[in-house]
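Progress report, Aim 2. The chain analyzed during this reporting quarter is listed below.
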Amino acid sequence: MTAHAEAPAIPTATTPQRTAAGRVRKRLTSRWASAASLIIALLWTVPTFGLFISSIRPEDEIKSNGWWNFFAKPQFTLDNYQEVLFGTSSSSGRLAGFFINSLVITIPSVLFPLAFCALAAYALAWTKFRGRDWVYIGIFALQIVPLQMALVPLLQFFSSTFDLEGTASFAQVWFAHTAFAIPLGTFLLHNFMAELPGDVIEAARVDGAGHARIFRQVVLPLIVPALASFGIFQFLWVWNDLLVALVFSSGSDVRPLTVRLAELAGTRGNEWQRLTSGAFVSIVIPLIVFLSLQRFFVRGLLAGSVKG
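Predicted C-alpha cells for the chain:
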C-alpha cells in the first residue's frame, strides 16, 4: 500500500494580502479599538453638546457658571434663538435672513461643481483626445495653488468685466466657489471613474450608446457614492466659508451666515447667549446633510482605493 504524501500548499500572491487585511480588520474590530473609538467620539461630541446646552440656558446662567451646571439646576429657554433669529435690534443678530443667504449660496455652489467635475472626469477617463494627459496633469497641479493667490485677480476680473450689484453678487460667489472646487472635484471623480469596469462601457458602445447616454445611464448610477462624498465636502467648505464670502459678498443683502457670526463675535463678544445659539443654528444644516448622506460617504472615500 503506497502512502500518498499530501501536496504542499502553493503560496499565492494574494495570501499575504489577505492575511494582512485580516489582521487589520481584526485589530479594527477588537474590543480595545471599539473602546478607543467610543472615547474619541465622546470627546469630539462633548463641545457640541455643551454648545447646545448653553444655547438653551438663560443669559444670566450662561454668564455666571458653566454649562454642566444645567443638570444640577435646569433652566430652559428659547429666547436666545428667538432673539438671534428674529431680533429687532441690529445687535441681536437677525440670522434668519443670513441663513437663507447661506442656503442660496451653498446649494448652487455644490450643484455646479458636481455637474462640471462629473462631465470633466468622464471626458478625461473614457474619451481619447490629443493632450488629454496634459490636461489632467494641469488640473492636478491647480490643487497646489493657494486660494488666496486667486482672490484679488478674480475680484479684479469681476470688477472690470461685469457690473454686478445687489442680489446679482450671488453670481460672484457661485463662480468663485465653483472655480476653486473644480480641480479637486475633477481629480477625485476621475480616479473613481477610471476604476469602473471597461467591459460595461464597451458593451454600451456596442449597443449604439453615445457618450451622453453612457454618462447618463451607465456612469452616473455607478458614481453616486463618489458624488455624495464630494458633495458633502463641498457643502461643508462652502457653508463654513468666511474668506470668499468676505471678498465677494460685498452687498449687505447677500452676506452668508458666517459673516454675520464673525461680526457678532467681534462686536458682541460678551453676549454668549447670542453666540452659542447662533453657532448652533449654523451647524444644524451641515449635520443634517452629513447624517442623511453618511451611508454614501465612506463608500465614496474607499472606492477605488483597494482592488480585489
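The CA atoms of residues 124 and 133 lie 8 Å apart. The longest helix spans residues 95-126. These observations will guide the mutagenesis work planned for the next reporting period.
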